[in-house]
Design a protein that fits this description.
single chain; mainly alpha; 11 helices; globular
């Protein structure tokens, strides 16, 4: 289906743009939500489920591991209030979350945070594959590879950190498109100095650029994929707003976190969110 009116109505987004308030970003998402077909809306929600998953894990980590919740990720498709009361609001959760909680909640107390995260990822990725969406498969495969690349670079500067298990197969089929990270050496050359110098803002800006490039590569005008690519940009703008609004506090928090990890030499069973 073509979305001529919707795409023509969407404001142009600029990378690292802080001019749009969170309320304005919410209004844009609401406009998109109201104008998508049911099937396309399901696909769009999957892009937001990455934040939903992290928010649910924050709630579970707090409940089972006394994890301090410093923030919840936005934008999301599941209200935080529902996740915080997931037992009473169970029927309001996405199907894959309900299956995850049904199957594993009795084992949470014996699981590490990393195990809880890995299991939820598996339920989520199975859910994605059932959508048979080229955009979703390509995007999350690309995200997985990008995170692997950055994780390996982190280990060079901070060898006490944990990384995702690279011995496991990718959750998604290897899709041979222009989105494959064939430029991993270039990415390493660009990000490694930023990580080594603890340039948090520089790292965030560079990752924003990669997402913008990914979104720009979907050139089927007025298609649903163009709407999804636009959502990729919106999600990054939310993250940038949270980062830039904290400014120096964000950098101080990062340095404090590194110092704490150095002191404690965190367990390899810590989550890798």
């Amino acid at each position: 289906m073509k979305y001529y009116y919707l795409i023509s109505s969407l404001p142009k987004l600029a990378i690292d743009d802080g001019s749009l308030s969170c309320d304005q970003l919410d209004d844009i998402i609401e406009l998109i939500t109201q104008n998508l077909t049911d099937d396309d809306l399901d696909v769009m929600k999957c892009l937001l489920h990455k934040n939903d998953n992290q928010n649910l894990l924050f709630v579970l980590f707090h409940e089972y591991h006394d994890f301090e919740i410093r923030f919840f990720n936005q934008p999301s498709s599941v209200p935080v209030e529902i996740l915080e009361n997931y037992r009473r609001e169970f029927s309001s959760l996405p199907d894959y979350m309900m299956n995850y909680l049904n199957d594993l909640s009795s084992s949470f107390s014996a699981m590490t945070m990393r195990e809880m995260e890995q299991n939820l990822n598996q339920y989520f990725y199975d859910h994605l594959l059932n959508k048979n969406s080229l955009f979703l498969n390509t995007y999350f495969s690309w995200i997985f590879q990008l995170e692997q690349t950055i994780s390996r670079l982190n280990l060079k500067s901070f060898p006490f950190l944990v990384t995702k298990d690279e011995s496991k197969e990718l959750f998604f089929p290897k899709i041979q498109t222009l989105h494959d990270l064939t430029e991993q050496k270039e990415i390493a050359n660009q990000i490694q100095p930023l990580i080594a110098s603890k340039d948090v803002e520089g790292i965030e800006r560079k990752i924003n650029q990669y997402h913008w490039q990914f979104a720009a590569s979907w050139q089927d005008a007025f298609s649903a994929d163009q709407v999804f690519a636009y959502m990729v940009k919106l999600i990054r703008l939310y993250r940038w707003r949270r980062f830039s609004s904290k400014g120096e506090t964000a950098r101080t928090d990062f340095e404090k976190l590194i110092a704490e990890i150095l002191e404690k030499r965190s367990s390899p069973k810590m989550p890798v969110i």
